Amino acid sequence: MAGGKLTPRQKMINLMYLIFIAMLALNMSKEVLSAFGILNKKIVESNSITDTRNESSFLQLAQKAVDQPGQFGDKKVKVEKIRVVSKEFNDYLENIKTTVTKDFVRDKEGNLPYEQMDKGDLIDRMFFTGDKVSKQGQEFVDKVNNYSAQIKQIGGSAIAESEMKKIEARFATTPVYSEKAGAKLAWIDYNYKGFPLIATITKLSQLQADIKATESDVMSGMFQTDLVAAASLTAYQPIVVLDKSVFFQGEAVTGKIILGKFDPSLKAKSVIINGSSVQAEAGQAKFSFGSGNIGEHPIGGSFNFDEGGKVVSLPIKDKYVVVARPKSATISADKMNVVYRGVVNPMTISFAGIADSDVSASATGLSKVGGGRYNMSPGGGTETIINVTGTLPNGDKVSDRKTFRIKGIPGPTGTIRGETGVVKGPKSNLEIATIGARLEDFDFEVGLDVVGFNLKVTGQGTVVVQGDKLNAQCKAVLSKAGRGDQVTISEIKTKLVGAGSYLLPRTAPVIFEIQ
């Protein structure tokens, strides 16, 4: 065995091999079989504990991914995929164990009859066909091989090279030298051929333990990488925090520089902003300088620290924009350049550089929704004027106004069964049909109610109808019509849903041709 301090896991593996040797020496005594059973039980219990610990670690990683998606989001995705692959492999091994032990009766505590599990024929028939590896045996070897390969593919650079080598060694299936055979044997022959069933069950449980240890090692390694990186000052990123993003010409540009990882005990040796030295404070440095001309301007400099006997400089790089003081408001209709009577017209009203809370707008039928959004419900007339006033940070007032045309809703088109134009079908279809109306190419979603219409069959008198369905008189007239006759639905009276008695302009007729 290797010298030095051993991990609990390595001690367990060493103990298992000592038991193998003892088993051969004692010719499969009942005590040895029981020892294997006890060892298997302890491994299974340890696996359950590891599962709980891994779940806790993953929940911590998931929470960090929510709090810091840029740093931990990709790692969470990788770990999720690794957990899926691990579960599939673990379930595969568990299925093998279940299959070969299903005929054994367990005691009241759920333990297998270890002393009766001294034969290896169940596994031998599953994994081998004569001296060759069976199809199921090869599948087993491939599963072991592919697991570490999948971990490497998913983890990529997020798994340290040294950690990946350890995982690959853990699931290596290279031939093994046998002292007894005096030659190298295939991995599956060396580990699974001719062993008592309880010994094989224990080995499969140990493989499951290796899977769970791999999950744990991957997550621990990812956390450790972040802890090491966070311990260095190179992990800190200077951040420019301006008091506001846009400044008016003539104002002082004010703000502060903070570090991405704020530490109140950390103070820079010096801070340079745009070529000038500013006073360093705990974890930050405040600054103030003239805004300059209209346009975009850079903010550059450095945070300077002493670390390890040398100066570490963290660059500062940002920019700000200077704009002229606003003289006009931005007023626009979200749907079009006019507003329509009879519907609610959504609008956006703002003043460049002025907060929404400092902007007020007024007009007949105008109401504020919030966040620069307004609703306009125009009344009579042909135009409406919107007046806007904004209050600058220094208290000055600026104002603007804009005129919008008011138009009525265009006339809709009549429908039969929701169809427009010439609708064809048997008389029975028309008798039960609903007469409706639809606004073609209109930007607003509105509900329309038909409250009356005229029905005219070729060669017969016109029937005036109240409502949106054919009455008895219509059906009487319709009964005299024959194939090829056209029924014209005209003078359709349409109103907006919820708009009271307000009727829309004339609705285009629709024709029904009897077939």
From TrEMBL:
InterPro entries from the UniProt entry: GldM_Ig-like-1, GldM_Ig-like-2, Motility-assoc_prot_GldM, Motility-assoc_prot_GldM_C, Motility-assoc_prot_GldM_N
Occurrences of domain Gliding motility-associated protein GldM C-terminal (ranges): 410-499
Domain of life of the native organism: Bacteria
Residue ranges annotated for the Gliding motility-associated protein GldM second immunoglobulin-like domain, each copy included: 328-407
Domain Gliding motility-associated protein GldM N-terminal: 31-223
Residues of the signal peptide: none
Start and end residues of each Gliding motility-associated protein GldM first immunoglobulin-like domain: 229-323
Record-linked NCBIfam families: GldM_gliding
UniProt-recorded name of the protein: Protein involved in gliding motility GldM
Organism (species): Flavobacterium gillisiae
Native organism taxonomy: Bacteria, Pseudomonadati, Bacteroidota, Flavobacteriia, Flavobacteriales
